[in-house]
Amino acid sequence: MSTSPEEHRATQTSLYGAPVDALAAEMRALLGLDDRGVAGVIGVSAPMFADVRAGRRSRIGNPVATLRLQMLRDLCRHLREGRASADDVPLALEQIRVATAPAPAGPEPVTSDPFALTDDQLREAARVVRRHVAPTPARRWPLLEAATGVETWVKHENHCPTGAFKVRGGLLFVDRLLASGHRPAGLITATRGNHGQSVAYAGAAGGLPVTVVVPEGNSPDKNEAMAGYGARLVVAGHDFQAAREHAAELAERDGLLFVPSFAPDLVTGVATYAAELHAAVPGLDVVYVPVGLGSGICANLAVRDLLGLDCEVVGVVAERAPAYALSFEAGEPVASAAADTLVDGVACRVPDPEAVRLVNAGAARIVRVSEEQAQAAMTLMYRATHNLAEPAGSLALAGLLADDRRDPAHTRVAVVHTGGNCDLEVLAAAAGLGPGAGLDVGARS
To answer: Which residues pair with 365 in a beta bridge?
Structure first.
């Protein structure tokens, strides 16, 4: 079953604040622009814009074109509210055409896929990210390898400034936003924690106010951390998807730029850790990556393909948040009825269609792990490395331990420790599984 126009338009609402057909109708009425005129202002082909407008695809893709569309939307709002007049429109349109053009950075291959990665893009992302994030270590731990039975490298993204990998994507997103010449009134996003901390941290670094919407019952420690980075916190909705929908409504109401949890700049920023990993540990057979909305696994796939490596990338999900496993099995996006899991960092109910496309095309498999397996992996990670893992941060290790389809010849393995932002109560519950957390730390057969 293919994705319907209604589903594409729902994705557009989360990305642009409203379906593109609604935005286009308003631009025709207020700005006198037909579809070809809008396409010309934002800098995409008319057929591509027509496909997005008709709901045949979700995204514009090009980040500069996306920013220009948002500026057109803002101009329409200013006209409705009386903050601009019809006399302002010709000059405003010309400014939008040129204001968001990025500075020339030398020749770069043109790709039709906004998520395809080039050498130049990766180098530029690393330059931006390293202003704030030093390369994180990749290490082997003897006690961990006693449990896994294979050479096991841990990529310690818990050593990032916010305690999680997401900050890399947020920094690149904000840097490119400001470099484009567009400075919105503020940023808004929805999160269970690490993405929100990333946007809050990057927004503060770029001088942009940030609003973060979290669901009810969200991690108190993560909420406090986001507030600590200067974000305004809004609590709304029973789960991440509901919070995300509320954030999109606030973005439209308050004139804020919605920052999705999955977008090309976010994936490219996160790709810097995957590049660090392969530079530090050549010849990996398998990399295990937790899957929330998909930026981590898609970044690993992009780097693997850019470098031409013969390395499996295996996604790991919580069995109580199986949307990406279901989508992998079905070959198309499949939402789960619920995402009620203690592994809050991957509590995704509605997968991103573009992420599903990339994962289904490039991942070796998706492993599901139980709540108990995630807790046991948290305990093992702490006992073996004395690095604290939040539930999602332990998921790659849990996936390695649970993966009964791993080729026995694949003995050089990496697990991505995505974050260490764990509430004390969650840690205590995991440790309460008992001595050894049910794990035999002897050699694994």
So the answer is: 314
C-alpha to C-alpha distance for 289 and 355, rounded to whole angstroms = 14
Contact by Cβ (8 Å): 204, 232: no
pTM value is 0.72
Per-residue tokens: 68: 């220009």
Spell out where 28-121 has E strands: none
CA distance 60 to 86: 27
DSSP label at residue 346: G
The contacts of residue 226 (CB under 8 Å, 6+ apart) are 191, 193, 196, 197, 200, 212, 214, 233
**From first to last of its 445 residues, what are the pLDDT tens digits of the chain?**
466 888 888 888 877 888 899 999 999 999 999 988 998 888 777 777 887 888 887 777 666 777 888 889 888 888 888 888 888 888 788 778 764 444 444 444 444 577 889 999 999 999 999 999 999 999 999 999 999 999 999 999 999 999 999 999 999 999 999 998 888 999 999 998 889 999 999 999 999 999 999 999 888 888 999 999 999 999 998 888 889 889 989 988 898 999 988 999 999 999 999 999 999 999 999 999 999 999 999 999 999 999 999 999 999 999 999 999 999 999 899 998 888 888 888 888 889 999 999 999 999 999 999 999 999 999 999 999 999 999 999 999 999 999 999 999 999 999 999 998 877 777 777 777 533 444 444 444 3
N-terminal to C-terminal alpha carbon distance within the chain: 42
CB 304 within 8 A of CB 160: no
Beta bridge partners of 57: none
Q: Give one word for 255, left, alpha or beta, with left for phi > 0 and alpha for psi -120 to 50.
A: left
Measured CA to CA, the distance from residue 422 to residue 158 in angstroms comes to 11
The answer to whether 264 and 271 are in contact (CB under 8 A) is no
| C-alpha to C-alpha distances, 245 to 17, 226, 295, 300, 441, nearest whole angstrom | 10, 19, 19, 28, 44
Tokens of residue 174, six digits: 């904000």
* Cα gap 377→304, rounded to integer Å: 26
Token pair, residue 100, equals 């968001």
Q: 399: Cβ–Cβ under 8 A, 6 or more apart, which residues?
A: 288, 290, 314, 315, 316, 367, 369, 415
- CA nearest neighbour of 171 among 179, 305, 225, 289: 179
Cα torsion through 218, 222, 223, 227, rounded to 10: -170
Could you list the beta-strand ranges (E) of 362-445. 365-369, 412-417
Residue 95, both tokens:
């400014």
Question: Are β-strands 412-417 and 151-156 bridged in parallel, bridged antiparallel, or unpaired?
Answer: parallel
